[in-house]
Amino acid sequence: MDFSNQLGIFDQVTASEDRLLEDLLPDGHSSVQVSLSTLQAKGVFRAIDCQWIEQLSQHAGENDAAVLMAGALCSAYLGAGHICIDLATIWTVPPEGLSVADLHVFLEKSGVSNIQSWRDALAKSGLVSEAPSAAERPMVLVGTRLYLYRYYQYEQQVLNYLKRQFDRSVFDVDGDLIARLFPDKSDKVDWQKVAVANAASLLFSVISGGPGTGKTTTVTKLLALLVAQSFAQGKPLRIELAAPTGKAAARLTESISSAKANLPLSDEIKRAIPEQASTLHRLLGSDFGRSRFKHNKENPLHLDVLLVDEVSMVDLPMMAKLIDAMPPHARLILLGDKDQLASVEAGSVLGDLSFGIDDVYFQPEWATRLENLTSESLTPFGNVSAPPISRALTLLRTSYRFNENSGIGSLAKAMNAGDAKGVLRCLQSDHDDVHWCIPEEGQTKADIATLAKGYDDYWEAVRQKRDIAQLYAAFSRYQILTAVRQGEFGVEKINAHLELYFYQRGRVKDPHVWYPGKAVMLTRNDAALGLFNGDIGLCMPDESQRLRVWFMQPDGSFTGLLPSRLSEFEVVFAMTVHKSQGSEFDRVALLLPITPSPVLTKELLYTGITRAKKDVTLWGASNLIRSAATTKIQRYSGLVDALWPN
Ligand SMILES: Nc1ncnc2c1ncn2[C@@H]1O[C@H](COP(=O)(O)OP(=O)(O)OP(=O)(O)O)[C@@H](O)[C@H]1O
Fold first, then answer.
1. How far is C-alpha 499 from the chain's CA centre?
2. What is the ipTM of this complex?
3. What is the pLDDT of residues 533-559, one digit of tens each?
4. Where is the RecBCD enzyme subunit RecD N-terminal domain (predicted)?
């Protein structure tokens, strides 16, 4: 039951005052229920967290407030993207909306006087198993970390897979072929070449890099090397390409096919490198509505090599299921930008895997092996304290899209480094490709007319009834990105204002119905239509003048659907930065709210800025930009400690 609805005044109370509220609640409710309801009203817990705890206490008979409070925190943190909670961390870094003092009052009321007593209560509970016990209980305790059982299992699946890879033997790699693929020599280390030699040596590898660092170029050469080696051995490879969203899959298809054209290899080898990428859901055989995929340990994927792009968007459950479905002999190559926002759902797998890679390179003997294969000077990068995971990782460190003088490149670099002064300096400089719009004193609304201007070309294409491919191209050249969903500067209001503005300018006849040029984004996967959350559709008449919503397929073709067939979607002249992951646009307008928000982090701004290929305009006040640049997202999991022990 949601007690907080009965007591709106909870919003106002602090932990020390909520004792009074016990008198207001119906008889028979314990102080833990009061605390949970108070914390729900404060936004620390969601209704679902409290319901879960109520079930645990009613059906499993758990009455220990220390356990129930920890369970609710575990559930709430999962909702915020964490895989687990750490009792020791929470003790000093309380959840958003609570002071340390308040948290301690709540915990004391739950019988917790220190971290050890909290841990002891959990260890004693019948609801908690203590690792390495395999007992299946709702929660698992590992040191001071507490997991919901299923998430502990996901993490273990990933860790066990990685540990198996660390023990595997290393493949022979054709160094001459690598030299052919990378004919150019320079004084600096060619990290693309190193990445190819590294990934070709292993069954599991990660290639990470910022925008334009040549991830696709590199991986296309890697696939070429693997194909050429397999031809030499007379064993053709089954290669599959995948990405988390339809858009990202379409982009991977496009980039692989253009990168292939430049390969200095025979047509036979080029033909054997596939171009067609699918979504991870489709690859695994999504059984929409069920959490289990058709492909799993019992029914593994039929492939020898799997390349997954945009891995920063892959959450922990999806990664665990993917790994589960990999045949033991097959190679898994993960590609992505470790510094981008983590997945919408729980975990930050790519960030955790590549946690120390900025500073830690390879174990010395591995650096020597790669040096022999590539003729690159890698000895200086040998590091005795590099953990086994470091062997699987290569970071591409040079951007070929943004040179030293590029505004976007410099802005992204400063943001990524958390260098607030550098960010502001870059915004104030006279780079052609970076613009800064500062809200005026007292401004409460976004400047819709200026934001809308970026769509002039698109509306012209709509007016001229250009074909859908041209329309799509025009739409993809510009995008307004918002940091938040709600409020005057949130995506919902901005889209509503934009539609109204387009209506007032005569571009839209009636914004309340479907109209030519309406742009929508699906907000749910739709198995029947073969469409995915995040897919973008543009409304235009077909040959018989019936309005249809056109979606681009991963192969670049278009499917037109009657608008009535779409159920869950939203207008997408503006989209959130989260939804823009996996896409790039020539020009981006990145709109920040005018009041501080916890979502304003360096990862969010970095992701938004790097969606722009040619031009970015940042709308926001300097204090918010400064604070975002120095705020880093932290997602708790056990992966970093397990993989990067030093
Ligand atoms: N070693 C190189 N030398 C010169 N140009 C390169 C090199 N590697 C990549 N490029 C060029 O840089 C651009 C970006 O390369 P690529 O698309 O492979 O990067 P990416 O990291 O996949 O980019 P994205 O940010 O779009 O994911 C392409 O035009 C590519 O041809």
1. 29
2. 0.98
3. 888 999 999 999 999 999 988 677 899
4. 42-147
Handedness of CA 147, 149, 153, 156 (dihedral sign): positive
Q: How far out from the chain centre does Cα 331 lie?
A: 22
* Structural class in CATH, domain 168-400: alpha beta
**HEC per residue, 91-103:** HHCCCCCCCHHHH
Q: 30 pLDDT exceeds 80?
A: no
Number of Cβ within a 10 Å radius of residue 432: 10
Dump pLDDT digits (tens) for 562-578.
999 998 999 999 999 99
Please check if 210 is assigned to a binding site.
yes
- Report which protein residue has its CA nearest ligand 1's atom 15: 214
Cα first-last separation, the chain: 46
Structure tokens at 291: 């959490």
Is 442 annotated as belonging to a binding site?
no
15 or 441: whose pLDDT is higher? Answer: 441
Task: Output the residue whose Cα is nearest ligand 1's atom 6.
Answer: 400
Bond before 596 cis per omega within 30 degrees: no
* Token digits of residue 3: 């007690």
What distance in angstroms lies between residue 205's CA and the mean position of ligand 1's atoms?
19
Q: Where are the domains of the chain?
A: 36-146, 168-400, 407-630
- Chain-centre distance for alpha carbon 186: 34
What is the per-residue DSSP string for 93-144?
SPPTT--HHHHHHHHHHTT--SHHHHHHHHHH-TTEEETT-----SEEEETT
